[in-house]
Amino acid sequence: MKNKILLCLLLLPLIFSTLYAKKQNGEQLFKEYCWGCHHQIAQAFGPSFKSIANKRNKGEIIAQIADPEGTYQSLGYKRNSMPSFGDLNAKELEALADYIYKFKDKK
Ligand code: HEC
Fold it and tell me: Nearest C-alpha to atom 2 of ligand 1 is from which residue?
């Protein structure tokens, strides 16, 4: 019993730090790769994350980041002006999509 409590106490910081790291990650990736063209809530060269989160699902967002050349038509654009970030791994794409979704309007 005592050991189990001790184990929980040891694991807690680990769990929190991974959760925190995941959150940090999306924001960091955004600042590193997307900030030049996208703003969280304002239209920039590209649409705001707020407007994206309000009209797309996560699959569409991930597909666009990894392969904009393959998705722009289905998203309704005449041509593609966004570079591909297909070298990001699945976790990074997911973190970016989660970050974008944070700006979705609450209903
Ligand atoms: C060089 C500028 C540029 C960079 C860098 C860029 N984007 Fe874009 N992005 C655009 C533009 C412009 C569009 C609008 C579509 C078009 O004109 O190609 C767009 C469209 C999108 C869309 C789809 C919009 C919709 O209508 O659903 C998503 C999602 C997106 N960008 C995410 C990202 C993410 C995430 C990053 C960083 C990893 C990023 N973009 C980096 C310029 C950029």
Answer: 37
Domain containing residue 44: 2-101
Evaluate: CB of 71 within 6 angstroms of ligand 1: no
Domains in the chain, number: 1
Residue 107 belongs to some domain of the structure: no
- CATH code, domain with 24: 1.10.760.10
φ, ψ of residue 67 to 5 degrees: the values are -150, 70
- Residue of 29, 37, 78 to mutate, ligand 1, most atoms within 8 A of C-beta: 37
C-alpha of 82 from chain center: 16
Atom 29 of ligand 1 has which residue's CA nearest to it? 61
Q: Tell me the whole-structure pTM to 2 decimals.
A: 0.84
Residue by residue, pLDDT tens for the chain (107 residues) are: 778 877 777 777 776 666 655 555 899 999 999 999 999 999 999 999 999 999 999 999 999 999 999 999 999 999 999 999 999 999 999 999 999 999 999 87
